[in-house]
């Protein structure tokens, strides 16, 4: 957190000692500039990028690991820093011992959760490479490809494109992604990021190396939690012992750990506690379902689907006796018909965002009704949804 943000947080005090929380610092969908204790895997990524410093494009590569292992956090931080370095130098990235390098690659990060079509993919890559705005309407996919080739037409240009969250439900599968990459200029290398092991994806048929992320070790995850908690409030916001409890429960998953910490801080704030207590921590952990869907997937959903989820969480249990009844209640609060809401609810269940659970019934006639159970951290979702 920067100095100005810290000052503003303290200005919100009203004279009464209480916990002050900056929720962005605790959010599982916010990545910090300098991820905690990621040196070894960062070095492996830099080894992959090493040809750049000699004036060459690296080969394609595949980054993989389970949810919450830090793939997105580390890759986005590294690419953001490389973009800044190359922008400041306005020339090739090189060291003092490699001054002969004249190659000036561009670094592009694309989230596959937000680019599910060929047009969206090429548009995202092009928009990251040019300064001017790229229109989203009135232009064909082929025109985007032509502009990409023209943008990278030069002996000293090229691009490394990192594409995150591949092969998740609702995103590009491996074969579709490879087909899209075939439409990129020849002077583009790609870094695919996913969860599948190398022998379970077609992506590795087109890569020269694989970089694995392991789940966080307990002590490292404790450091992550303590660092985020300190940024969110103060050094006394979270006790080290409680951070250990969350880390051990999360079992190496930083997303779930941060979601639990967020929920604990929210509970402490509502109860006007001066710091997070054991009871707050227990409530935060209980609010995170296992297995848990990444909140990044939820916030990548279209706005109308997020609104439906928001209204779903606001319903009383007696209003959720069946999907049909749920749809009718939600339709009263959104600009959608009950039939459309019902279709969206079923699609969310099919994608694993929610889970259909057989509901209790008062008679024994026909098929038992079902209700929908969220599979994502609802406390965090509601807070961030309201902020947006």
UniProtKB/TrEMBL annotation:
It holds the Pfam family AAA_16. SUPFAM superfamilies: P-loop containing nucleoside triphosphate hydrolases, Winged helix' DNA-binding domain. InterPro entries: AAA_16 (IPR041664), P-loop_NTPase (IPR027417), WH-like_DNA-bd_sf (IPR036388), WH_DNA-bd_sf (IPR036390). It comes from Haloferax prahovense (strain DSM 18310 / JCM 13924 / TL6). This is Orc1-type DNA replication protein. Residues 42-186 form the Orc1-like AAA ATPase domain.
